[in-house]
Amino acid sequence: MRLWILSLVLVAVLGCAKNQPTHEAAVATQQKAISEGGVKDADLAKYKKEYELSKALYVKEPDNKIAKETYTFATVRYATSTMYSDSLDFKVKYREALKLFREALKVDPKNEDALKSKNMIEDIYTKMGRPIPQS
User: Fold this and answer.
1) Which of 62, 105, 120, 124 would you call most buried, defined as having the most Cβ atoms within 10 angstroms of its Cβ?
2) Sign of the Cα pseudo-torsion (33, 37, 39, 40, in order)
3) Contact in structure between 86 and 38 (CB atoms under 8 Å)
């Protein structure tokens, strides 16, 4: 019962209760970051907390559809925010974002946003002649 209440809270917090598709929410996060010149520390901390809560719920209930969708959504949003962070160094943020996008793809291999962003980061590493981080 407690996990069910937590999942409802997470759904409301992440905007899924409004039936907002993950793609639209991720694009909105990305566009906001670009228009404002990057993701602020407070937003990044908020998205990290949502990611951690949703991951804990998903680990406890991996067969729960809401837990899975919430975890994927939070992971992609946190990864996108990490990628556009104002405060993280370039050497850190792209490696961390790539790791998070891959994590989301393990749960939802067809997630359009995670796949596009993962491929974009890998392409940038390739074009720079740098090895693509594997962890």
Assistant:
1) 105
2) negative
3) yes
